[in-house]
Amino acid sequence: MKLKIYLFLLFLFLPSTVYPQVGIDINVEFGFNGTAKVGRWNPITVTIKTYSIPFKGRIEIEVKEGSVILENVTSVMLKADVDIPIYSMKEFLFLAPFSDVRHPIKVSIFSQDGRVLKTSSYEIKELDMRLPIMCLIDNWTLPYRGTGTRVLALESDRLLDKPVFILDPFDIISLSPLSLRKLRSLLDKWIALGGNVITDSYTDISGKRRNDTYPGDIDISPLVSDLIKEEDIPLPSKSFVSILLFLYVLFLFLFLYYFKGHFLKRVGIYLLICLSFSYLLFSLTSSTKETSNVGIQVNLIKVDKNLPYASFYSGLALFSPYNKTLRFSYDSSNLVFWISRREKRIAETSLVTEERGKVLAEVNLGPNKLGLLRGWGVLDFNIKAYKDEDVLTVINNSLYTIRDAYFLGGKGYLPLGDIKIGVNNFKEETFRLSRLSRDDIRGKILSWFIDNDIILLGDKNYILGWIYTTPADIEFKSNNIKSLTLCLVEI
Amino acid sequence: MFTIVWKDLESRITSLEFTKFWGVSLFMLFLVFVIVAPGYQRVINSFIPKLFVVMAISEFFVFLAFTTAVTMGNSLAYREKTIRDLVIGSNFSVFSIVFGKLVAFFVHLLILIVSIIPFNLLALNLGIDGNIMRFLSVLISVDLALACWGYFISTLREKIFPVILFWIGIIILLVFTARLPYPLNLINPLTLIYYSERSGLLYYLFIGLLGLALTFWRVVYLRRISHEERAE
């Protein structure tokens, strides 16, 4: 009889323990149907389907890099809050670099009360490292591809309204002119990032392979890591705080020494003085931690001659002596940010996927930890430059005025001043010798780009200029972030 | 007991010697703050995080000086009577004398702690997050435990040798216990303050109770002697 009662009670409790598993369907897909490419950004798609019970929880993806032996393991958490009503299905797309074969990529789905509902992990396979991927869109004819290329067939609908980095695993995309029109904007951005698109099925693609985007051909993080170490962090005036504290000690002493009243009165006034000064000093210094951080962002914009887009590279260094979290958001349809070089004392970073295509980066700074990130992407940036004998015409259809610009040729440089929005004409005068000042921050940045062969002096003609505001696609939630963008227009 | 607490507090708080002592102590804390507080910070080479700990340890030493000065018979208040004076020269019960003295010490300690709050709050704002409540609980527990031993020493007629022993004990407590293996090293108050730990305070319960028991034993003994002398 007792056993029956126990079984009955167990039966009553059964639904509460199993409902999260039976109430929703969770599917995790790494890459495209398990096809991924090492050294590139790959999509991780989490699909959650609800039935009669709504679901609230969160998705967390941990991507680790670095060596355990060298103690330089860094990890980035990709996060998204999940809130799905009954009888619906929602797809969550994350982009992560598959870069380190030593660490699997781990996906966990948590319920609202923090229970793990599902975990999946992806071990990088040998094929992911070796073989290029060709993507056929909308059943287009297979071109001659040589040997060893993996072929993946996708419908164009799957790529519509997706971030440009979803195409990153592919070395080449083959599609019909009709599909090309459908995906025009996305493919143009991808071409600006170095992608190959073919619409002719007779093309031999065996020799066409892209460079890896991650870790990227241009990495500005070493530069910002060095630049931030020369910065000072603003703190409240030490002398001001010290004078106030001295006044407190003096005032308290003089009161205790000269006041001759009843001892309870003495204690009362003493407490009043102590608490008043406590409040005053605390309120005067309470904003110190909020404002005491420093950050440098150096960006490079390389304008494509043939497209209204520019490839964008960014290095971002953040520091605070206190335990605090600095946040910035960016437009995830065009940009990606990731933790930087594998070195010690790099701050933990989380990338939280938000609504409307935004990602919020949270960098947990602590004492002696540097937040170091690097970013890649494409920006809507339309500047064209033509040189007709001794007249230089620059048509600036971007949102920005380019400051302190100059024309950089093989023989030397010509200062142009500011390039305003609209048509700008400059008359070429005598070239001066190209002698760059390395003293100020702009000189240091420029000479670093030249030393690292990002700007090839002598080979090409450029227009160089600076943008001193943060690009519109990035928004910092903190002050004291210095943003310098070098704009590079090839002529 | 209330009379003892009242009189003790009154004599100490109105004492000019004590005012000077505390004024000098606060000025020394101010100097420590001026030396340690950062004027500006360079990236990575940051001393800011240690500000709260440095201030807390300095405050601990100031209160250590206060505890020893107040409890061991040199109370800095000329009207204050020691336990020995009260046992021999008054009719207060043993319980009232010992606990009256201890409560007076505790209340005075709390009053003095209020005066160091500006230093702690500034260190909180200009340093990393320190746990001010945990620090104060360590400070109060350690000082109360040492006060029990200080009161025991104040009951002795010859004080030089016990005072030397007391200070040797404190030096051992502050210096040598730090090298003990975990969790024995948690007996060290500086370790407790540095790591913002509270689990080592159980040791101080036993240290304090032992000191209190010895004080009671000594006070009962003195009372019996004084009764016998009076009877004679």
Assembly status: heterodimer
**Overall pLDDT level of chain A:** 84
| Estimated structural class of chain B | mainly alpha
Number of helices of chain B: 9
Find the count of extended strands of chain A (DSSP E, 2+ residues): 27
Rg calculated over all Cα atoms of chain A:
29 Å
Distance between the termini of chain B: 28 Å
pLDDT < 50 runs, ≥5 residues of chain A = 14-21
In total, how many beta strands of chain B? 1
Which protein chains make the most extensive interface, counting residues with beta carbons within 8 Å of the other chain's beta carbons?
Answer: A-B, 45 and 39 residues
Strand content of chain A: 35-45%
Number of helices of chain A: 9
Segments of chain B where pLDDT lies below 50 for 5+ residues? none
Q: Give the termini distance of chain A in whole angstroms.
A: 91 Å
**SSE arrangement of chain B, N to C:** HHEHHHHHHH
Essential attributes:
heterodimer; A: 491 residues; alpha+beta; Immunoglobulin-like; 8-stranded mixed β-sheet; 9 helices; B: 232 residues; 73% helix
Structure description:
- The complex is a heterodimer of chains A (491) and B (232).
- Chain A has 491 residues and is of the alpha+beta class.
- Chain A folds into four domains: 23-121, Immunoglobulins (Immunoglobulin-like); 131-198; 238-285; 293-491, no CATH class.
- Chain A is 22% helix and 39% strand.
- Chain A has helices at residues 2-23, 126-130, 177-182, 184-192, 221-228, 238-258, 263-285, 288-291, 441-451, and strands at residues 24-30, 41-50, 55-65, 74-84, 89-97, 105-111, 116-122, 133-137, 150-154, 172-174, 196-198, 232-233, 294-303, 309-319, 324-331, 335-339, 348-353, 358-365, 370-380, 383-388, 391-396, 402-408, 413-419, 422-427, 462-467, 474-476, 481-490.
- In chain A, a hairpin with a 4-residue loop joins strand 17 and strand 18 (358-365).
- The longest helix of chain A has 23 residues, at 263-285.
- Chain A starts with a helix and ends with a strand.
- The model of chain A is unreliable at 14-21 (pLDDT under 50).
- Chain B is mainly α.
- Chain B has one domain.
- Chain B is globular and about 80 Å long.
- The model of chain B has no long low-confidence stretch (mean pLDDT 86).
- The interface between A and B is large, with 45 and 39 residues.
- Strand 12 of chain A pairs antiparallel with strand 1 (41-42) of chain B, so a sheet runs across the interface.
